[in-house]
Amino acid sequence: MPYHQTERAQVLAEALPYIQKYSGKTVVVKYGGNAMISDELRHAVISDIILLHLVGVRVVVVHGGGPEITDMLNKIGKESKFVDGLRYTDRETMDVVQQVLCGKVNKNLVSTLNRLGGRAIGLCGMDAGLFEARRLDEKYGLVGEITHVDPAAVTDCLNDGYIPVISTVAQGADAETAYNINADTAAAKLAVALHAEKLILLTDIRGLLRDPGDEDTLIPVVELSQVPGLVKDGVIKGGMIPKVDCCVEAVRSGVKSTIILDGRIPHSILIELLSDEGIGTMLL
Ligand SMILES: Nc1ncnc2c1ncn2[C@@H]1O[C@H](COP(=O)(O)OP(=O)(O)O)[C@@H](O)[C@H]1O
Ligand SMILES: CC(=O)N[C@@H](CCC(=O)OP(=O)(O)O)C(=O)O
């Protein structure tokens, strides 16, 4: 028998205990960044999601789309402004966020998943009261802080064999109609509400690096007790602060483990879930 056939069978056989571990469990994947923009990486992520779904993992996709929102704002001659890493969202920006996230990005993702053999259904935070929010702070405009998560619609989709694909526009719990929610934050809140086994945050960097300029300095495992020290030492900074914060909150609230994973590595989700190789930063 040719060597490559034996090797392929070996790889599949080795995945068995991991498939058994995650089958029937809920895994929330926050999808964004390069992995969503490059065709090749998008294809790899989507086929990973379909494969996990087919082996019985209850996969939930929460997507970002920051770069697409920025592009659309540019097209209408509006500059993007960020405050503490969050998009300053005035009323006009909120309309664009809703159009881009709930419309273009969500529907394109659902369509690709379905075309490649998945059974996906698109939802936004307003559907069936999934995410309710109030204004986080005046300084961010219509950026919301999630006050309530009702995961019933997501659970129903999972029970009916669908892959739910969720955009992070929330229903206002006050007089406002809609709030813009950072996708990492929303994914973490949903993972908690679903009692997820794992939260995966796909990003454009290997994980948490001791030296952000050197990709060989990956910190593979971070325990919650180490986080304050890493912030104090300036290791966790910039875009990593909200990411690590929401992982910490998710683990504290019962999610077994969270992982910051490199979406630039093809099939990083499968490597992470179905093998012994830890390739990102796991927070637990
Ligand atoms: N210690 C660190 N390790 C890795 N990245 C870091 C670190 N500190 C700050 N960063 C920055 O955080 C960024 C990831 O956050 P962000 O750009 O918000 O991700 P995303 O767009 O995927 O949500 C990295 O690209 C990097 O510039
Ligand atoms: C409040 C806030 O900043 N919302 C984000 C929502 C999209 C998002 O989070 O997309 P990424 O994951 O691709 O960055 C935004 O408007 O860009």
Automatic annotation (TrEMBL):
* One GO BP: L-arginine biosynthetic process via ornithine
Q: Does the keyword Oxidoreductase apply?
A: no
Q: Which reaction does it catalyse?
A: N-acetyl-L-glutamate + ATP = N-acetyl-L-glutamyl 5-phosphate + ADP
Question: If you read the UniProt record, what top EC class would you report for this enzyme, in one word?
Answer: transferase
Q: Return the GO cellular component terms, semicolon-separated.
A: cytoplasm
Keywords (alphabetical) are: Amino-acid biosynthesis, Arginine biosynthesis, ATP-binding, Cytoplasm, Kinase, Nucleotide-binding, Transferase
User: What EC identifiers does the entry list?
Assistant: 2.7.2.8
Record's subcellular location: Cytoplasm
What one GO molecular function would you report for this record?
acetylglutamate kinase activity
Q: Which residues constitute the signal peptide according to the record?
A: none
> What Gene3D superfamilies does the record tag this protein with?
Acetylglutamate kinase-like
Main location class: cytoplasm
Q: Where is the Aspartate/glutamate/uridylate kinase domain?
A: 25-261
Which residues make up the annotated site Transition state stabilizer? K30, K243
- Which pathway, metabolic or otherwise, does it act in? Amino-acid biosynthesis; L-arginine biosynthesis; N(2)-acetyl-L-ornithine from L-glutamate: step 2/4
Residues binding substrate are G65, G66, R87, N180
PANTHER family in the cross-refs: N-ACETYLGLUTAMATE SYNTHASE, N-ACETYLGLUTAMATE SYNTHASE, MITOCHONDRIAL
Family to which the UniProt record says this protein belongs = Belongs to the acetylglutamate kinase family. ArgB subfamily.
User: What function does the entry list?
Assistant: Catalyzes the ATP-dependent phosphorylation of N-acetyl-L-glutamate.
Cross-referenced HAMAP family, in alphabetical order?
A: ArgB
Name the record gives this protein: Acetylglutamate kinase
Species this protein is from: Lawsonibacter faecis
